[in-house]
């Protein structure tokens, strides 16, 4: 620790009144005293005990200077011996008084320190008791919490097991129901497939039958057309003046236009029954 004084600038007015030796002595007294010595950082701060010490040192310094001044003046006067005698008596009384004040201050400090120690011990005992009680309450709370957590966890596990079992039963029931439904649907699908297959076969048979009937009808119609044409040709050969029937296809065309006209009618007759009924063709439609 540094022995050089480094007081705060706040005490500049007091420090300017003291010689360097007293500044150093005050600094050492603060930082090396037996009871509660200050660190350098604390000694550089603003504190009431620092200001009190410096003020007391300034008063002591000026009192000492005044006594020295009085001694000097007493030595230069005729009744200086009696004055010095009175001054010495006064100084002794002052020293005794300062010593008494110092002892009283020390006693007060000791009393205060004792009270502080007792208060500190009392507060420490209270703190320890409170800490012990809080630790006990905390431990009890933790035990209760662990028990609650264990019970809650156990309940959740039981609920999960129960829920899983219920879900499994529901799942199996649904699977069984679906399997039964699938069997029923498969049977229905089989029936429908058989019905569709039968209908397809029936459709083919009906189509074949219709095609045969249509062919037979076309053969009949074409045969009748040929008979009509033959009769018409005979009538014309016997009576040319009667004229040609416009609904019967002629045996020969007088122009390219007539050939194209009858070819168009023959093609239209394939899709239009009214044309097929109205006209008689020499070639199969």
Number of strands: 0
Order of helices and strands: HHHHHHH
Could you give a short account of the major beta sheet?
Answer: none
Principal-axes geometry comes out as rod-shaped
End-to-end C-alpha gap: 137 Å
State the helix count.
Answer: 7
Explain the overall architecture.
This protein has 285 residues and is mainly α. Among the domains are: 1-76, no CATH class; 206-278, no CATH class. 80% of the residues lie in helices and 0% in strands. It has seven helices and no strands. It has helices at 12-15, 20-32, 40-43, 48-75, 80-238, 256-269, 273-278. The longest helix has 159 residues, at 80-238. The mean pLDDT is 82.
Please specify the SSE layout and strand pairing:
Elements: H1 12-15, H2 20-32, H3 40-43, H4 48-75, H5 80-238, H6 256-269, H7 273-278
Helix pairs in contact: 2-4, 4-5
Offer a concise description of the structure.
With 285 residues, this protein is mainly α.
Key traits:
285 residues
């Amino acid at each position: 620790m540094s022995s050089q004084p480094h007081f705060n600038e706040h005490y500049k007015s007091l420090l300017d009144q003291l010689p360097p030796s007293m500044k150093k002595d005050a600094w050492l007294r603060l930082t090396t005293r037996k009871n509660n010595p200050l660190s350098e950082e604390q000694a550089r701060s603003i504190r009431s005990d620092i200001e009190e010490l410096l003020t007391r040192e300034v008063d002591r310094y000026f009192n000492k200077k005044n006594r020295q001044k009085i001694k000097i003046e007493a030595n230069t006067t005729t009744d200086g011996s009696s004055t010095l005698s009175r001054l010495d008596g006064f100084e002794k009384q002052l020293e005794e008084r300062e010593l008494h004040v110092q002892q009283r201050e020390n006693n007060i400090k000791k009393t205060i320190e004792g009270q502080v120690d007792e208060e500190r011990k009392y507060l420490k005992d209270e703190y320890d008791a409170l800490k012990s009680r809080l630790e006990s309450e905390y431990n009890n709370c933790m035990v209760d919490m662990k028990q609650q957590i264990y019970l809650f966890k156990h309940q959740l596990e039981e609920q999960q097991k129960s829920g899983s079992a219920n879900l499994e039963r529901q799942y199996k029931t649904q699977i069984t129901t679906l399997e039964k439904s699938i069997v029923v649907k498969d049977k229905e699908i089989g029936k429908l497939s058989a019905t569709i297959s039968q209908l397809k076969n029936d459709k083919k048979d009906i189509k074949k039958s219709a095609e045969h009937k249509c062919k037979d009808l076309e053969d009949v119609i074409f045969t009748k057309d040929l008979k009509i044409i033959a009769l018409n040709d005979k009538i014309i050969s016997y009576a040319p003046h009667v004229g040609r029937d416009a609904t019967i296809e002629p045996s020969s065309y007088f122009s390219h236009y007539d050939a194209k006209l009858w070819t168009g009618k023959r093609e239209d007759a394939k899709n239009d029954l009214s044309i097929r009924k109205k006209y008689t063709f020499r070639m199969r439609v």
